[in-house]
């Protein structure tokens, strides 16, 4: 081990590990750094030693340093160093072997070897502690270890001001009146009978705890004998039955009702009657907007169908049928209007819209329907009167509802391109069919009976789902997203079904006072409208989110009063306008 | 209580009033008018405004409505009120009127029966059935004196002033048409939201009625369609300069279209669908179905003012300093553009809705759903 010590430089004789006994016969001890001989320093002979011992008490301090070839006198400091070394103690005054152990100092400071790197576990969280903590946490979680609750003994001072603030103050003493006076008026004094009556009574039942007495002077008033008892009872009363101030619950019932957002934030929505389409002489049964909102078709009780310019209310065309028109419905893709009049369904286009000629096709034979083509128009004859029609989104298929038919033949699906009609139910279903609707995106068909809404997959030809909880629905429709179904019922309720959520209604809206007649949804704005026989139209904001975790936001916005009970209400395809069939007129709310 | 008032006007030097006057806050318009006319020794019907709000009742109410106190000085602006209108003639068109234009001392009227009619001094001078369906709109160019007329079904024709058809063509369902300043081209606003720029060519005209094409002995029309203009019905088209087209639509937008690039250079978003509009001096005035009337500056797309009528705004026309507005309930409101909050005059013009308006400094013409054309004179 090499030691970088400056004392190495003081050694003159550079013989290294060569034993000095080799130089016993020579006059020199060795060689210095320059290669010159270093002559031996001769020590005192025996006689000199003896003399020095007797004369110099510190003779032992004189020694010869052979390595450096000089005489050295040992000082006290040298002596101390030698003693310390002999006692196997560390040398150096500045070194304190008992200094405080510094845990934070790196180990290198303690001279344990500067080359040794500290182990990784010294600066990592302890693995064993982690295992131990995990075990304890698991035990607490499982309930094996229970934390003891420290019970604090509550001691409170009854007479402190803090407590008195929380509790009600003591009952006030009744101020003394005339009867407590030491010289009361004569009328307050007891008669003999009253005295006897007072004394016979049980002290608990006495009206007054004392008998009024009369003294002629104050100095003659004796000490009150019951003072101690009275005070004791007072203290007892306060202690045993302390009064507490109970906060009076003063909640306004109106404040418990959740605050609905301001309808002003949900504009635009229909608010006011702005226009009337006047021209029908009979009661308007059905209305429908052209797919782009340019025209409005209407059919009335007298069999008259009118086409109106939707923005101005001008009647552009009119045609008459022999039977009353119960339903009109525009094809969602082509400029064809389906008209239900009696047993016939007429499919025709009008001059004001884009003129369209339905191509002629050989119709297939059917027991339920007979197809006739003439000059680009089609007439379908059914066995019984048709009351309702609804188109599929792609414009080729449409279904018709014949209410007087046998239950299995009520619903018939027709194909415009093939001139075909199909009865889709092979056997009688329980309850009459009341309404139906196509899913806007999927091959599903919804049929509303008296108690249920049945969902059929048209491709697989299977009953897929059954929605319950409704009573005699009048009309059903689907939300533009296709995930929600709305049903207007005779029991004055509007039911909202979430297709994926549950078979029971997600929300029920019992706002109408009489039977509902129609429910409509807007294709662009988050709006729903219902019409009822109570002469009202209810407008709702219905925001449906694409995030399935967020529930639809449904808020009632406005109730519009009508003069006549509307039979149908319908939103414009693009504008936030609501048209309703009210008697002989069609009213437009904006 | 009194307030210190100074008067300002743009009527000219002879109407200038110097200094300030201490006026009682209970004074009304008539009192202030008397003061001004007494000072100036003139005679007129004056209207007073404070920060563009008209003085309709007392001065104190006007100050209170604007949160002003009587301690400071206020500056009242006055101008000669639009004189009241008097009905001076009536004519019948036979069907709902779709459009009216005042041109060289006559009025031209189109109706829903497809007729275009010329009335001179409220007497029917000439008429011709141009289309079998409703004639939705027409426009007469001052330079060439040609008439472009469009029907609802998309048929369009160019006529001369004597109603002779010069050119004809066919496009989609159309709503409005307008000539460019020189009369060489005209623009048609379609129901689908597109704009078609048309010009006459020398080829034969082709008309499509029903599914049948029909050749006619007139010139044809060439169409250049601007596809990406609006997404809904175009309710107004204006061609103020050769390179710029201003269009309004049911899709709530007012677009400024650069015709050289055939793209939209700026847009203004309105609160509702623009039912009717007019353009004047870089300002576009829009009427909405919720009874609102807004004016926007096309240069910076900013809203200048907003006011409310009493019914659906059906038609709108700027006549000099006045804005005339035709409503669903048959009334015509006349607003002074210098004090636009309150209508200056309310005219019970028609029994049905007011469908068209036009006018000049002397007359105001209105056409309604009752088939009547009314003429009002500014007295």
Write up what this structure looks like.
- The complex is a heterodimer of chains A (590) and B (379).
- Chain A has 590 residues and is an alpha+beta fold.
- Among the domains of chain A are: 20-87, no CATH class; 265-589, Methylamine Dehydrogenase, Chain H (7 Propeller), CATH 2.130.10.10.
- Chain A has seven helices and 33 strands.
- Chain A has helices at 46-55, 76-86, 127-142, 161-166, 192-200, 227-240, 253-256; strands at residues 28-31, 37-39, 62-65, 70-73, 273-277, 284-289, 295-300, 304-309, 315-320, 325-330, 337-341, 344-348, 369-374, 377-382, 388-391, 397-401, 411-415, 420-423, 435-438, 444-448, 453-457, 462-467, 473-478, 484-489, 494-498, 507-509, 516-521, 527-532, 536-543, 553-561, 568-571, 578-582, 585-589.
- A five-stranded antiparallel sheet of chain A has the order 10-11-12-14-13, with no helix packed on it. A four-stranded antiparallel sheet of chain A has the order 5-33-32-31, with no helix packed on it. Chain A has a four-stranded antiparallel sheet with strand order 6-7-8-9, with no helix packed on it.
- Chain B has 379 residues and is mainly beta.
- Chain B has helices at 29-40, 59-65, and strands spanning 2-8, 20-24, 46-50, 53-54, 73-80, 85-92, 97-103, 106-111, 115-120, 123-129, 135-140, 147-151, 155-159, 165-170, 174-179, 186-190, 195-209, 212-226, 234-241, 244-249, 253-258, 263-269, 274-280, 283-288, 292-297, 302-308, 313-319, 322-327, 331-336, 345-348, 354-359, 363-368, 372-378.
- Chain B has a five-stranded mixed sheet with strand order 2-1-5-3-4, covered by helices on one side. Chain B has a four-stranded antiparallel sheet with strand order 6-33-32-31, with no helix packed on it.
Question: What's a quick, concise take on this entry?
Answer:
The complex is a heterodimer of chains A (590) and B (379). In chain A, 12% of the residues lie in helices and 29% in strands. With 590 residues, chain A is of the alpha+beta class.
């Amino acid at each position: 081990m090499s030691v970088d010590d400056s004392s190495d430089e003081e050694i003159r004789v550079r013989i290294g590990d060569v034993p000095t006994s080799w130089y016993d016969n020579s006059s020199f001890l060795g060689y210095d750094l320059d290669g010159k001989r270093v002559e031996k320093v001769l020590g005192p002979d025996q006689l000199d030693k003896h003399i020095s011992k007797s004369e110099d008490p510190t003779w032992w301090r004189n020694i010869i340093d052979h390595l450096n070839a000089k005489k050295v006198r040992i000082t006290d400091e040298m002596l101390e160093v030698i003693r310390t070394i002999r006692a196997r103690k560390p040398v150096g005054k500045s070194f304190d072997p008992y200094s405080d152990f510094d845990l934070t100092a790196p180990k290198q400071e303690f001279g344990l070897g500067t080359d040794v790197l500290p182990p990784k576990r010294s600066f990592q969280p302890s693995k064993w502690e982690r295992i131990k903590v995990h075990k304890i946490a698991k035990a607490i979680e499982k309930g094996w270890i229970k934390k003891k609750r420290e019970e604090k003994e509550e001691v409170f001072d009854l007479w402190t001001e803090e407590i008195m603030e929380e509790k009600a103050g003591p009952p006030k003493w009744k101020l003394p009146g005339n009867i407590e006076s030491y010289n009361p008026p004569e009328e307050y004094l007891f008669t003999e009978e009253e005295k006897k009556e007072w004394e016979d009574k049980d002290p608990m039942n006495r009206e007054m705890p004392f008998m009024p007495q009369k003294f002629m002077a104050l100095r003659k008033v004796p000490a009150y004998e019951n003072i101690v008892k009275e005070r004791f009872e007072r203290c007892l009363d306060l202690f045993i039955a302390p009064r507490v101030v109970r906060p009076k619950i003063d909640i306004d019932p109106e404040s418990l009702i959740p605050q609905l957002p301001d309808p002003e934030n949900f504009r635009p929505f229909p608010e006011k009657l702005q226009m009337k389409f006047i021209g029908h002489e009979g009661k308007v049964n059905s209305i429908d907007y052209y797919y782009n909102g340019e025209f409005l078709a209407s059919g009335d009780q007298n069999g008259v169908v009118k086409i109106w310019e939707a923005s101005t209310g001008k009647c552009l065309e009119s045609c008459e049928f022999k039977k009353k028109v119960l339903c009109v419905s525009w094809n969602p893709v082509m400029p064809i209007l389906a008209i239900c009049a009696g047993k016939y369904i007429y499919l025709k286009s009008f001059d004001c819209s884009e003129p369209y000629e339905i191509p002629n096709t050989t119709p297939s034979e059917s027991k339920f329907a007979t197809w006739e083509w003439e000059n680009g128009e089609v007439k379908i004859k059914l066995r019984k009167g048709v009351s309702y029609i609804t188109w599929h989104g792609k414009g080729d298929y449409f279904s018709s509802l014949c209410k007087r038919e046998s239950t299995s033949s009520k619903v018939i699906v027709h194909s415009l391109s093939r001139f075909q009609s199909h009865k889709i139910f092979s056997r009688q279903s329980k309850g009459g069919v009341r309404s139906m609707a196509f899913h806007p995106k999927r091959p599903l068909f919804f049929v509303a009976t008296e108690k249920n809404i049945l969902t059929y997959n048209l491709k697989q030809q299977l009953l897929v789902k059954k929605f319950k909880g409704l009573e005699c629905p009048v009309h059903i429709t689907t939300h533009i997203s296709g995930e929600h179904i709305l049903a207007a019922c005779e029991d004055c309720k509007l039911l909202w079904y979430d297709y994926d959520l549950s078979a029971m209604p997600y929300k029920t809206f019992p706002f109408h006072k009489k039977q509902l007649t129609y429910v409509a949804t807007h294709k662009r704005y988050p709006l729903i409208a219902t019409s009822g026989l109570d002469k009202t139209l209810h407008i709702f904001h219905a925001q449906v989110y694409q995030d399935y975790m967020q529930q639809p936001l449904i808020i009632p916005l406005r109730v519009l009063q009508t003069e006549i009970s509307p039979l149908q209400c319908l939103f414009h395809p693009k504008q936030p306008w609501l048209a309703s069939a009210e008697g002989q007129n069609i009213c437009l709310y904006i | 209580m009194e307030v210190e008032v100074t008067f300002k006007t743009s009527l000219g030097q002879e109407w200038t009033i110097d200094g300030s006057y201490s006026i009682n806050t209970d004074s009304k318009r008539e009192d202030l008018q008397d003061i001004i006319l007494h000072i100036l020794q003139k005679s007129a019907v004056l209207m007073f405004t404070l920060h563009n709000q008209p003085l309709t009742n007392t001065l104190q109410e006007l100050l209170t409505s604007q949160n002003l106190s009587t301690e400071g000085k206020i500056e009242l602006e006055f101008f000669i009120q639009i004189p009241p209108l008097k009905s001076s003639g009536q004519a019948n068109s036979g069907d709902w009127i779709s459009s009216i234009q005042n041109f060289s001392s006559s009025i031209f009227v189109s109706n829903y029966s497809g007729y275009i009619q010329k009335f001179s001094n409220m007497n029917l001078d000439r008429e011709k059935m141009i289309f079998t369906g409703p004639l939705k709109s027409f426009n007469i160019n001052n330079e060439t004196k040609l008439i472009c007329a469009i029907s609802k079904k998309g048929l369009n024709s160019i006529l001369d002033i004597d109603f002779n058809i010069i050119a004809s063509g066919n496009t989609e369902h159309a709503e409005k048409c307008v000539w460019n300043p020189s009369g060489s081209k005209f623009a048609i606003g379609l129901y689908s939201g597109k704009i078609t720029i048309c010009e006459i060519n020398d080829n034969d005209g082709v008309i499509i009625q029903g599914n049948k094409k029909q050749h006619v002995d007139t010139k044809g029309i060439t169409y250049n369609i601007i596809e990406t203009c609006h997404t809904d019905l175009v309710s107004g088209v204006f061609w103020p300069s050769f390179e710029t087209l201003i269009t309004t639509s049911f899709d709530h937008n007012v677009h400024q279209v650069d015709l050289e690039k055939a793209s939209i250079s700026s847009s203004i978003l309105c609160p509702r669908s623009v039912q009717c509009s007019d353009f004047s001096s870089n300002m576009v005035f829009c009427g909405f179905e919720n009874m609102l009337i807004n004016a926007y500056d096309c240069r910076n797309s900013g809203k200048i003012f907003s006011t409310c009528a009493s019914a659906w705004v059906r038609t709108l026309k700027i006549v000099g300093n006045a804005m005339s507005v035709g409503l669903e309930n048959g009334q015509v409101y006349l607003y002074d553009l210098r004090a636009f909050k309150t209508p200056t005059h309310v005219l019970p013009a028609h029994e049905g809705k007011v469908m068209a308006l036009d006018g000049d400094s002397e007359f105001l013409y209105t056409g309604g759903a009752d088939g009547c054309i009314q003429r009002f004179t500014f007295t």
